[in-house]
Amino acid sequence: MPPRVNTAQRRLLKEYQQLTKDCPEGIVAGPVSEDNLFVWDCLIEGPKDTPYENGVFPARLTFPTDYPLSPPKLVFTPSILHPNIYANGEVCISILHPPGEDPLQYERPEERWSPVQNVEKILLSVMSMLSEPNVESGANIDACVLWRDNREEFERRVRADVRKSLGL
Amino acid sequence: MSSFVPTVSDPSDFAHCSEPRLVEFDSLLRCHICKEYQTAPVLTTCGHSYCSVCIRKYLIHTAKCPICSKEIREANLQRNVLLEQVVICFKTLRDDLLEKLTVESKVDDRQRRGSCEVIEIDDNVEVDDELEIVSETKKRRNVGQGGLESLFKRKKTPPKVGPLGTCPICAKQFPIRVLESEHIDLCLNTPLLEQDKDSIVPKESEHSYQKLTKLDFSSLSNTTLKQKLAKLELPTNGNRNQLESRYNEYLILWNANCDSIVPKDPKVLRRQLAQWESSLKFRKDDHDRQLDKKGWSDLIKQARNSKMKTREEQDDAQVESIDIMSTNEEDDSNLITSAQPQNCSIQASTQESTDHERVFAD
Ligand SMILES: [Zn+2]
Ligand SMILES: [Zn+2]
Ligand SMILES: [Zn+2]
């Protein structure tokens, strides 16, 4: 007897299957365990030519039961210093917000969450977020200010996060 | 994970067959919401198509098309009969198609000229809609020459057919030579019903299921609501919220089913409803589990490989990247520990339940 799975689980299974076949470079993601497809662990490599370069950052994706109708939540564990990442590690980018919900008013709807999006697109957005912070709609005000006014110190602290991510 | 991942069908199943362009065709037949083949597909006013049940559920949240973001309304959804027939047809052929196209590249041309098998899904088997299994219960029958095989052969060596003509009886096209010498005679002598018997695709049938209407719960007493549920042969236990959610979920399942040319028996819908309710209860229990060590170490291996690729591109490898990607076991365990949850309050906040969950989680 095959396991009974609901729509959300079936879709998550599919996405996982696809990612194992063809995963974008610098990204690893998969369910924490066979028993719970709703929580995934991810490893995200810091993009080249950014202060995050050489870092490998663990993050956790938590999916709602009505996925993909609602978006998952992405939290870096531990948090890293970035204008669009809250101090608790939670990532705040438009693809993780449904069109109705509007903390970042002016964004185009096609950048928003819809069931057409998927884990791969989220993680690619996170990579580009690491390359290009969006300080106009920042989540971490301290990080925004530091990034804007004292880039050197910002980068020094990010490199400290990188070393931490490597267990150094 | 490997124990059950391979049982889910996916467009990429065609990636390594002799016609990899079928990957695209396969994915076109799927719903953008659930990634399955479209079930009872409906068209939106903007021309996009989804499973009726998927888009109906989505529209409760957001009155916009998931693909193009245009405003759409549930009341304007239209059945997409042709697509449903195409999907049923393709699903029926899929396994054989895959098998043939995978074997084809290895087998001698002569061997391919034999008879051609087509899968027929047994109508009497209730296909469990909750899980699409690649190897469905099926019986096989011989179709003789022609069929798919000829289709694919035609692609490689276009046959010399001469001018085509249309049969006045069945309206299909045939080479005029064939039409005059044999087909028209044959066609005239075959009763109409007989001609349809071999069709894989069910005809658009008249069924008697009527759509249910939304209820205005504020004007309904508990007793009336229970009567409505009982009339639909649904359970009447639970509190008011549970009764309302149950009705709303069933409304969607039912109305979506009405959009299909092959509607399921209400018994099947009631089973789906029960599964939906129990899945809401389950979710509460399975909080964080331990990492599946095997699965995770495979992932780490992949990460390392992709990192290796990057490193081949960069000529001078940096000290830090060597450290993390060395094959030393300790590094793996470092990664794993750092990937574990670190912050309890975050964990708690990510376990927020949706309204539906809360309703049934007692
Ligand atoms: Zn669907
Ligand atoms: Zn659309
Ligand atoms: Zn004819």
TrEMBL record, chain A:
Any one GO MF annotation of this record: ATP binding
Keyword field: ATP-binding, Nucleotide-binding, Thioester bond, Transferase, Ubl conjugation pathway
Pfam hit, one: UQ_con
Pathway: Protein modification
InterPro entries in UniProt: Ub_conjugating_enzyme, UBC, UBQ-conjugating_AS, UBQ-conjugating_enzyme/RWD
GO biological process entries: ERAD pathway
CDD domains tied to this protein: UBCc_UBE2G2 (cd23796)
Enzyme's top EC category: transferase
Reaction catalysis annotation: S-ubiquitinyl-[E1 ubiquitin-activating enzyme]-L-cysteine + [E2 ubiquitin-conjugating enzyme]-L-cysteine = [E1 ubiquitin-activating enzyme]-L-cysteine + S-ubiquitinyl-[E2 ubiquitin-conjugating enzyme]-L-cysteine
Keyword Transferase annotated: yes
Family: Belongs to the ubiquitin-conjugating enzyme family.
Name the UniProt record assigns to this protein: E2 ubiquitin-conjugating enzyme
Organism of provenance: Cyberlindnera jadinii (strain ATCC 18201 / CBS 1600 / BCRC 20928 / JCM 3617 / NBRC 0987 / NRRL Y-1542) (Torula yeast)
Automatic annotation (TrEMBL), chain B:
A Pfam family reported for this protein in Swiss-Prot or TrEMBL: SAP
Region (Disordered): 325-362
EC number of the protein: 2.3.2.27
Reactions that this protein is recorded to catalyse: S-ubiquitinyl-[E2 ubiquitin-conjugating enzyme]-L-cysteine + [acceptor protein]-L-lysine = [E2 ubiquitin-conjugating enzyme]-L-cysteine + N(6)-ubiquitinyl-[acceptor protein]-L-lysine
Record key words, sorted: DNA damage, DNA repair, DNA-binding, Metal-binding, Nucleus, Transferase, Ubl conjugation pathway, Zinc, Zinc-finger
Xref: InterPro entries: Rad18 (IPR039577), SAP_dom (IPR003034), Znf_C3HC4_RING-type (IPR018957), Znf_RING (IPR001841), Znf_RING/FYVE/PHD (IPR013083), Znf_RING_CS (IPR017907)
Annotated metabolic or biological route of this protein: Protein modification; protein ubiquitination
Keyword Disulfide bond: no
GO CC list: nucleus; Rad6-Rad18 complex
SAP domain mapped to chain residues: 217-251
Domain RING-type: from-to ranges: 31-69
Superkingdom of the organism of origin: Eukaryota
Cited PROSITE patterns: SAP (PS50800), ZF_RING_1 (PS00518), ZF_RING_2 (PS50089)
Family indicated by similarity: Belongs to the RAD18 family.
Protein name, as recorded: Postreplication repair E3 ubiquitin-protein ligase RAD18
